[in-house]
Amino acid sequence: MIRVKKFGVLQTAKVAAIIYAIVSFVVFLPFALIGTMFTDEFFPEFSEFGPVALLFIPLMYGLIGFIFTAIGCVVYNLIASFTGGIEIEMETAQK
User: Could you say which of 5, 7, 80, 90 would form a disulfide bridge with 73 (CB–CB 3.0 to 4.6 Å)?
Assistant: First the structure.
C-alpha cells in the first residue's frame, strides 16, 4: 500500500488550473463560434464580446480551478494529518 499523506498545494493547484483552462477552451470554443454566427443577427449589442469571451472564460475557469483546488488540497492535508491519508494499492505493469 502507498499512502498519500500530503499534496503540494501550489503545484497541484497550478496543474489543475492549466487543465481547467485547456478543457474549458476546448469545450467553449465551438459554442463561441456558433454564438458569433447568430449574435449579430439576434443580439447586435453583444457582438463585440465574442473574442473577449473566448479568452476571458477559459482564464476565469483556470483561476477558479486554481483557487478551489488549492482549498481542496489544504482541506485534504488537514484531514490527512488526523487520519493518515488515502491508501492506494499499486502494482507494476507486466509486459
Answer: 7
Q: Cα separation of 18 and 33, whole Å?
A: 22
Q: Where are the domains of the chain?
A: 2-88
CA–CA dist 34, 78 (Å, integer)? 45
Q: All 3 cell numbers of residue 41? A: 443577427
At position 74, the amino acid (one-letter code) is V
CA-CA-CA-CA torsion sign (57, 63, 66, 69): negative
- pTM, two decimal places: 0.75
Whether residue 89 contacts residue 8, with contact meaning beta carbons closer than 8 Å, is answered with no
3 state SS of 43: coil
Measured CA to CA, the distance from residue 3 to residue 5 in angstroms comes to 6
**Per residue in 43-76, pLDDT tens?**
565 566 666 767 788 899 999 999 999 999 999 9
